[in-house]
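User:
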Amino acid sequence: MTTEVVITEGDSKRNSDYSLQLNRWFLKPIGAWPSSPSTTRLEKIVSLILNVVCFSTLILTAIPSLLVIILEDETFNFKLKTFGFVNHWFVSSFNYAVLLMHNKDIRKCVSYIEADWRTVTREEDQHVMLKNARIGRYIAAFTAIFVQSSVLCFCFVTALNTVEIRIANETRVLHVLPCAVYKKLVNVDEIPTNEFMLFLQIWSTVIANFSTIGIFSLAAVLTAHACGQLNVITLWIAEFVNETRVEKKTGGFIQIGVIVERHLRTLNFISYIEDVMNKICLLEMLRCTMDICVIGYYILSVHDYYTFIVCLLFSAVDITFIFCIIVLFFLRFRLRNGQSMIFEIWHRIL
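Assistant: Predicted structure:
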């Protein structure tokens, strides 16, 4: 295993930023990006304010719509249509809370990635890690574009529709809300209240989307990085075996120690990923399973243009989820294959 130093500190910093850049963009606007020792007090205060504002917005927006399902005497189809958005807001609130509770674990994962890039000293290792970092970025970008565009398109298309209501001798033109609210709690028949509630629902939808996107993109980038580390270790072991066979070099135990230390470090990194993502992925799977069932019911029982748009856009979100699950299973398969290959090589060496 050669040790020629060809990677500068500036290159390592750029590569680390390249790997984590999209995650930072998705999590900072909702205050979920973990703080580091270099984070200023002002940045911590801003993050805390964002946490309170975002979480309060999600809960306050979801409660009036939840009351429609519980208290209003509406048809089952109407309540089912409302349930889709309420489900999205509440699950996103839980995911957001889990992100904040696992802030330290996420910080450790980020620190692992930054440290791994700093320790890269060979161009071959850099190419392997960059290839996997690029895969993580592609998944993150695809998730962001698909989720935000599909859900926000539904919100804006719905908001462009108007309805006329007559109260006493006055006729009012109101925007159709993306999700119905309990009018005894929030009187959306008033124009200012209607417009404020429309803004609040769209804003909370953006926050919920950022929460979901942040989770999937974080899982993709962390898993892709772990795959890259296992590939680097495999490369090191193969080079070590070839060198010892050809050159009969001494000092092999020192190189084995370096490889073992890197392998154990990668396994520890993988355990942190599982701790952060297990509960979140389970809840997302349950949420999207319910959404798919609702979509199936709409397709079979209701036939109108609005329902078609609802099914199409929520299907886009679920397709994104299915795509991400497939990719994550693929990355997990690569992780297991990488570990199996490494253990097999260790067995041959020893």
